[in-house]
């Protein structure tokens, strides 16, 4: 298994990216191609006491870096020698099995869609993070790649999220819920109402395990393995979850730091606080999978440290080994609306 | 100030409703009309050691109760002698200054809209809870009354939420944010993009203090005083916040209950835990204001205890005294889209 890593993307690049890759090679037995400015990558290796890349690591030089200020839609074209463009071309050409980047989300999505391309028949690629929930995490699909969706997109997200939950999270028969504001099929906007009918049909055909609408609260508590949503609502869900978690963690920290007695209390529950932090920590999960692209692409968090990059690489390897792209390819006919399929055939 | 209270709505009715009303009369100096089954209300009073309603309390008998299984849209018509219908007719007829119910949200919304009516020119009434945020709470408008909205509805929500934040929460020049998935005006769906332009215009005219788009995370942290949203997205935001808070509170409880040592830790930070709980507790805030109706209506949480009912009554009195219905009425012309206003004139 060979993972292509964008050495230059993210707030802590290239140091965290290189060190995360080193740890992944050591611990996970994967090979890594680091793409970026060769001299900067080598300097990090030197600081780690290495004169050259260790076994399992390859460096592919790319002189440019896509920055936050670049236009996400066109950055990969304007900067042809960027780590993003070079890395995704390597993926497209089969030089590696998956691509990991902690750089600009929008630029990565546009570049992956246009260089690596979507799976044939898939209308939109989705961003599918694993969000921390009461059942040990759920796949949220989509969390922002496509703000405005059609029922057909959501049908495709449901199938793709289901395969991901089964193959990558190891959930047999994953429960698929439609993010909504009530249980009844009539709830929500026209989008949710129409999607409900499609998901129900797919459920009745035994293609997915659709459990109905899921409200934000129940989703967090862990009622489903896959939360199906348009990108706008999914992003609201994700950011609200992050915000609430972060806000409460801050309150908690203040509570424990108040005085000597509360600091003693913190010591007494230090184990518990660690697992509490772990629940809130995005680094534990790794990155966000781009599902629907014809090869595995993982977006690591912009603030990723070594540990988060290492986890994103593990996730990329798991994604690549899972066979879900084959699942999607083989079943894509069941994810199409008859009318639109006809239109394309005609 | 006289508040009409639905004695029969909610999980703990009529006991909590009667006891909450008693506390409100005692502590807040308001008068209360309790609407519901006279004998059941009297029984609660008897249990509280009273033979008849105390000064400031009046009982209006209504023999029926709207139940969860009733059709929300028609319940108030089918049950003409329900506490809901009788209570709202009292409000309409000016027998009291505001109405509080912990019963079915849908039935209350439908009944308030059709009996008490919307303010002239207001297209949709909105449900506007005060959500716990880093700045001491923000008005979320709408949280589910209207799943599918037009830019004009959202423009009206922005004005109405702003008046509420100013007059009821006491925020001078309240910051109004549009719930969205990024800062740029181009973010979100067509609804957010069009609404952004309207809110910006209203801001430039000095009618509201529009601070731009606000993401879920920043909204929780307290970036704005008013979070403007369609009912679908607002409900996702609210329920995700509640779910995440509840989920983390559960984790925390488990952490403190683990063994004797962790229980000792809980004792040492008991003050902090209390304020932590207070942040998460919906009862502290009281209820959800229905804004856009021509008289003040407050929906208390279905699980309200005495304390929550008492707080909802306080909130109703504050709403009634605030003058925001007059604010809305006087400024409604600025909340209309020119084209549609023209259409109605013609």
Automatic annotation (TrEMBL), chains A, B:
InterPro entries: FA_synthesis, Phospholipid_synth_PlsX-like
E.C. number: 2.3.1.274
Domain of life assignment: Bacteria
Compartments where located: Cytoplasm
Pathway where this protein functions: Lipid metabolism; phospholipid metabolism
GO MF term set: acyltransferase activity
Family under the similarity heading: Belongs to the PlsX family.
Protein name (database record): Phosphate acyltransferase
